[in-house]
Queue: 2 jobs
Job 1
Amino acid sequence: MPLGGILKGLAEEAVKSTVRGAFREHKNYADYEKEIAAKMASEDANHSAKEGGLTVDEAEDLIEKSRDSAVAEAQKRTNQKQHKMVLLLLLGLIAYAILVEPVP
């Protein structure tokens, strides 16, 4: 196998690894972001329930609704970011296909 073929194979594997790592990192950050949003919403709802003099059941419902709302909002932001990443990747691939000359 010529040296050019080996280098091309290594470059392809490096790109694949980088893309996988970027998506994995993004997913981990998105999960962390949802966890923090849920925790903050729970704390705020708990504080509001204490100040409002709610019963335990009412407070639990308020906390659960707050967490669900916060997680849904964080998921929405994550989906928007993922759509942007995929769009940029596709645009990059299209630009690469257009700009790079085919090798005979």
Note: The radius of gyration is 23 Å.
Job 2
Amino acid sequence: MKKDEMGPKETTHVRHEAGTENKLKRLQDDFAKAKTLDVATKLVWGDRFLHEYYQHYTTLDALVRIFVSGRFKLTSSVNERLNDLQEMRKFGNYDLLKRTYQASFSHRMSESASMWALYSRKDPFAVRVTIPKDKMERWINSLADKKQSQISDDKGAKIANALVDFHDIVYAAAASQDADRYSIKRSDTLQWMGKTTSRIGKLRDKIKDDIVTGWMKDCEWEQERESRLCVRLPACDTTIEALFVDIPKDVLADMRFTYSPWLAKDQEDKVKSVLQALHESYASGKDEKGKTIPQYYRRSSVQGALNIRM
């Protein structure tokens, strides 16, 4: 694969119709049988939009900035604030990572107590944003449109000729000399979608390849079930700390929100009013027939985390 390519150029998008579940099962079965990194990654990249919904955990302040600006922030892949610092040191080509900017989403349907802990630890006003598959597909495709740039740097300058891609992360367990018995048993494996594992011979020798740059993480993070939006610049520019990508108005209007399990009861009305104002800034609250749409926000249903204060 050439250094400036990220995933396949053509994709066949999955629609959630009869047979979709069977297709996912076939993909998972084929992934479990994959014996090479090339075969495994082609299966993951064969369709970028495999999941019915995508979740993004963030803070209420950040969500307000997204709605006010109509833009979404992408962080440098070599930013020290990333939750997995090993990724930039362990996986992929570092020179490619230096010009790659990313935003993370989770494709797991159920809420994650660990994800809430990451975002609610210092800020109880955390929010999980839910985006339907069709809206995510429309958004990503609009960013890949070369006719009009939807991408700008942190100074507001438009970015041309950037590569845009979106698909699932695979999680690697590579052998190491100091591995414990459990790690050795799992070594040379890739995991995808939280339950599908393939064994790849001498995986440790391949985790620095260009092909996995930006798309592989350590197996310790597999509970995230991450799908990632990546934008790669034509050349490295260390003065750019972040990129911003435009979000279509209909994507903003169709977002749904879940607020933190740690939010104090006396703060709920405040958060609900903010979420309502954000939603109504892009949507009327009615469908095309004038009927009220389903509630677009709710409190987290995670129970095990409620008695924990980070």
Note: The longest helix spans residues 20-33.
